[in-house]
Amino acid sequence: MPEIIKDKYVIYEKKFGHVNWLGFFVLYKKEILRFLIVAIQTIISPLVTSLLFLMVLSLAIENGRVGGALGYPFITFLAPGLIAMQIIQQAFSHTSSSIMIGKIQGNIVDILYAPLSPAEVTLATILAGVTRSFIIAAVSIVVFSFIIDLEFYSFFYIILYTFLGSFILGATGFVVGLWAEKFDNMASATNFIIVPLSFLSGTFYSIQRLPETLQKISEWNPFFYIIDGFRYGFLGASDGSIKFGLSYLIILSFLVWFASYILFKKGYKIKT
């Protein structure tokens, strides 16, 4: 009798290896399509914001001033910082909104019941945010090249810091999306953490102009190393130590992702 039941009913048979690559790719593709459908809001809008900052600040501050920052004209110094700021903000926005909307609409259960591990879910969602950031970076660089004379020192560092910055903020957005119970909570995290850290990271100025105490504080701001390293890829000059910043960001990227993995695995503010 047990053999007959066993032949008739197959309770579960795993059809993939240690990693469900098909499920991972499907979730990743779903997240990609989610922001491409509204590309005007997710791709064009950040570009327009950066261009407005560039235009207003170039008019407010003497354009073409040699030695404006790090030995370069202010506008040349500013452009990479503006692109990097949009990269990290949009990566955060993507993952946090994805989790938050899923919780509010209730369709997050589709992910919870899917044959996907917590690592696969977190990485697929975060990497979709990374992809969004890379698209924004590529489009912004092309458009900015037609407007100003962009310097290019190392594409390797541009790509590396685009990935690290967007991965860290994507993982942070995942954690915030889990923590937030309503959009007001998410807006608070954006307004009181993400935006201040972005503006205090040397986007618009060299931290060498800050008082020594504020310089020391800025040197522990991860946004500073993201933007400084990204700018280094364009100018070949930086405010901080590239080696220290790179090590700091690699360690931080793992820690923030691991936090998102643990929280999602435990069902933090998801399961009731």
Write the layout of secondary structure elements.
Elements: H1 2-8, H2 21-36, H3 39-60, H4 74-105, H5 109-112, H6 118-147, H7 155-179, H8 183-199, H9 212-218, H10 222-235, H11 242-266
Could you tell me the mean pLDDT? 87
Reported for the largest beta sheet, the result is: none
**What proportion of the residues form beta strands (DSSP E)?**
under 5%
Uncertain spans = 4-13
Count of distinct structural domains: 1
Would you kindly provide a written description of the structure presented here, covering whatever features stand out?
With 272 residues, the protein is mainly α. The chain has one domain. It is built from eleven helices and no strands. α4 runs parallel beside α7. The chain is globular. The relative contact order is 0.13.
